[in-house]
């Protein structure tokens, strides 16, 4: 029944656009950014506004806004909001947000005017995983009893585990730490560091700077006080896109 309703809703959208000669406005955005979809047919009161989303490949239509009120039973309702001009705002755009968005006006249950169509195209950033590993004959002992830690920080020294954009995982012995994130346009020249601390004191670190097509790895070794030989290794695992790893 739900599939039949989706098909009926899709048919009405297509039929309306054919009869009125309405064409969709193309909007291009990168994943992770915020986007505003304009409603060019809005009335003075957004209480008459409905936003409908359709994904061509999923063959599903979803009502996002009804009567100017956000539907809470949609997967992404927390990232959606209605602007004062009845535009649809989407925060932290994801690749699955692409598709056709229809702004429609209803007064007393009757459609008013023509639909405003917006075709959203999402450029998905490249996902990259970095693995930082400590090699030592006494790694477990140092972690369990000496307070040794591995952590990923930004160039300001802020621990990245507090940022939901990054997925940080540890191996069972906490001697390997991985960071996974999607590279965005604003990451150009951004620096991340893998730090090794002992009793909350920085011992050594590895840092790298992201370029649009190149990841530059700069290794900075500090003096380690304990009589233990430690090697930090950074491994850049490609998830999507092409990267080159240059050691300086």
Q: Characteristics of this structure?
A:
18 strands; 248 residues; Immunoglobulin-like; 2 domains; mainly beta
| Quaternary organisation | single chain
Q: What is the CATH homologous superfamily assignment of the largest domain?
A: Immunoglobulins
Helicity level? 10-25%
The number of distinct β-strands equals 18
Please report the first level of CATH classification, the CATH class of the largest domain.
Answer: Mainly Beta
Strand order of the largest sheet: 1-9-8-3-4-5
Low-confidence stretches: 2-21, 217-248
Percent of residues in beta strands:
over 45%
SSE order, one letter for each helix or strand: HEEEEEEEEEEHEEEEEEEE
Overall, the morphology is: elongated
Terminal CA distance? 61 Å
Structure annotation, total helices: 2
Mean pLDDT: 78
Structural class: mainly beta
Signal peptide: 1-24
Transmembrane segments: 212-235
Protein name: Ig-like domain-containing protein
GO molecular function: MHC class II protein binding; protein tyrosine kinase binding
Structure description:
This protein is mainly β. It folds into two domains: 2-123, Sandwich (Immunoglobulin-like); 127-247, Immunoglobulin-like (Sandwich). Helices cover 10% and strands 48% of the residues. It is built from two helices and 18 strands. The strands form four sheets. A six-stranded mixed sheet has the order 1-9-8-3-4-5. The chain has a five-stranded mixed sheet with strand order 11-14-15-16-18. The chain has a four-stranded antiparallel sheet with strand order 12-13-10-17, with no helix packed on it. The longest helix is centred in the first third of the chain and has 19 residues, at 2-20. It is elongated and about 75 Å long. It starts with a helix and ends with a strand. Residues 1-24 form the signal peptide. InterPro entries: Ig-like_dom, Ig-like_dom_sf, Ig-like_fold, Ig_sub, Ig_V-set. This is Ig-like domain-containing protein. One of its GO terms (cellular component) is membrane raft. GO terms for molecular function: MHC class II protein binding; protein tyrosine kinase binding.
